[in-house]
Amino acid sequence: MELLFIQSQEHPKLPIAELKAVIECENIEGTLDIITEGLVILKDISEENLEDYYKLFVRRLGYTHEVHEVISKFKYESLEEEILKISWQEYIKDNFAVRVKRFSSDIDTVGCEREVGSLILSNVNDTDIKVKLENPNSLVRLVAYQDNIFLAIERFKLNKKHFEEIKPHKRPFFYPGSMSPKLARCMVNLSRVCEGDLVLDPFCGTGGILIEAGLIGCKVAGSDVNWKMKNGTAINLEYCGIENYRTFNVDVRELKMYEKVDSVVTDPPYGISTSTGDIDGDEIFNEFFHSIYSNMKDDAYLCMASPHYVDLQPMIDEVGFQLVEQYHIKMHRSLTRVISVIKKKD
User: Fold this and answer.
1) Exposed, middle or buried, 77 (CB in 10 Å: 0-12/13-18/19+)?
2) Residue 66: enclosing H or E segment and its boundaries?
């Protein structure tokens, strides 16, 4: 059995990197087939695992828009024949809508949606099944790539509204410069954590990273040298319904965790004005690496953001970390944000 992922194309590499990280840390069995940017298939899934995997992906992924169970794959010229082969009563409950997504294809989306909807109606024995274009009980998704059609059904919905509803300025405690929820979720996933793991953000700011970790079931801990940020993080975590958290007002150089953490996910402050007390320039990153190492489990990952002009590699090597992967995000003309995934050496 197969799952189809329609991914964000905001970044050429982060969506697939996030998906691969979740597959790795959750020990998901299957074969990943990257059709094109934004379209991925996970193949060779056993029937007994399909629903659990589906729910997990829907709960965790940030840079994926939709996940669907694949019903059939065929050439566009076989559309009518293939649609009429399917026992739609197995997939549709009460009402449905058909939606077409194109990748490198020039098919008529509206015409195709109408045609497929009519074919489905002609093929169901239940006269109570209707087309419902808004909020249907069942969504039939056709993905067209060149002359290929992937026909799928949506079993579980991603909460795409979450990343809009929880933007930094919509939280009770706000401070300028906070990371977007979608990127924060992606970074948490890149750190290879699972439900119940302990995630630390030692520069927690307004708590955006910890919110995303908490929402996928992690225990979270945050610290900040600024007590207002520490308190603001707690306010925002409680606003999001996250109860399993601890926050501390402490300089990262003095941080001694009550237990070693499964991952560190953070966006250290940098620039002319930071909340790092007396640390200036690149030194904040050097001090951070040295202090955080002893707070991490031996197999823990660190996912962090940094500006492009800071060379992290010498610091990583000096402390005993290993750089696993890196991604660059263009912010504006003078700044590129670098997302680094770093592992504590075995």
Assistant:
1) exposed
2) strand 64-75
